[in-house]
Amino acid sequence: MKRIGLLGCGAIGSLIAKAIDDGIVKAELAYVYDIDKEAALKLVDKLRGKPKVSEGMDEMLRDKSVDMIVEAASDDAVVEYLKPIIESGKEVLVMSIGGLLFPETRRIYEENLGKIHVPAGAIAGLDAIQAISLVGVDKIVLTTHKPPEALAYSEYFKNRGIDLENITKPTLVYEGPVEDALKHFPKSVNVAAALALYSRTGVLVRIVADPTRDKIVHEISVESKVSNLKIIVENVPHPDNPRTSYLAALSCIRRLQEICSS
Ligand SMILES: NC(=O)c1ccc[n+]([C@@H]2O[C@H](COP(=O)([O-])OP(=O)(O)OC[C@H]3O[C@@H](n4cnc5c(N)ncnc54)[C@H](O)[C@@H]3O)[C@@H](O)[C@H]2O)c1
After folding, report:
1. Separation of CA 73 and ligand 1 centre (Å)
2. Which residue in 52, 78, 199, 254 has the most C-beta neighbors within 10 A?
3. Where are the domains of the chain?
4. Could you report the per-residue pLDDT of 28-75, keeping only the tens digit for each?
5. pTM of the model
6. Cα–Cα distance list, 140 to 188, 231, 234 (Å)
7. Rounded Cα gap, residues 40 and 35, in angstroms
């Protein structure tokens, strides 16, 4: 049975830990680590199995009996820990996919495809996009509709005088390449980052602040000489944790089931 160390004990990390604790994923959760130790302690309190609350990543990485790190923390954590995780000989599942788009992490990802797992997360169709990438994807456009309040964390709007609170109809508030979107919307680029990694091409990101919908909607358009794809995904929030999409959590848990059954 694989022994797992969890990096990040927030919304997604807690759902993953619970899936392991409930036996939905056949693995042992050996360690949890969070920069906010209280978050790690709170999570362990809710679990029947009692993983060790690690003082830092070094402890998990030194432990040779740990097979795999599950990252559910932040892009910064991916930038900081991807190299040491791979150097320690462990596999890693990455949820903060935007963290893999920086030149150094992207290089490590491309050189360690079998060891770095990237679940499809909140979208569908990545299998086809990956297949098409063998001959080349010509163009990908991702249009994401989000309630304005879900974008309020970004300084992008304040700096440009855009008042999200006064938006009353669907409004295109951002358009740019994924690498630029990553700088302005670090919490909103996982889907775009997954598309970029799986397609091996540039992705044009469009963000629509949409007060008319309560779901986050991703519209993906792919053009190639093999197929043209139109994918629309309407995601509901996770019933236990409205801060994350139900599909993203299920996608991660399903991927872990697969990895841990081998
Ligand atoms: N791939 C997808 O489809 C998908 C879906 C949802 C979330 N995510 C990503 O997964 C990550 C976690 O999401 P969440 O909703 O659970 O966030 P969250 O804010 O609820 O939890 C993140 C936790 O990680 C901890 N953390 C952050 N940086 C850290 C670091 N450098 N070292 C140690 N701990 C650190 C935080 O203290 C926090 O407790 C985010 O990066 C998010 O963008 C990806």
Report:
1. 3
2. 78
3. 2-121+246-261, 126-235
4. 999 999 999 999 999 999 999 999 999 999 999 999 999 999 999 999
5. 0.94
6. 17, 11, 18
7. 9
Per the listing, tokens 């991703």 go with: 218
Judge whether 184 counts as a catalytic residue: no
The pLDDT tens digits for 144-182 are 998 888 888 888 988 888 888 899 999 999 999 999 999
Helix axes 246-261, 11-21, angle to 10 degrees: 40
Superfamily of domain 2-121+246-261: NAD(P)-binding Rossmann-like Domain (3.40.50.720)
190 CB less than 6 Å from ligand 1?
Answer: yes
Q: At what angle do helices 37-46 and 11-21 cross, to 10 degrees?
A: 30
Q: What whole-number distance in Å separates Cα of residue 31 and Cα of residue 4?
A: 7
Phi and psi at residue 240, in whole multiples of 5°?
-90, -20
Ligand 1 centroid to residue 134 C-alpha, Å: 31
Distance 227 CA to ligand 1 centre (A): 34
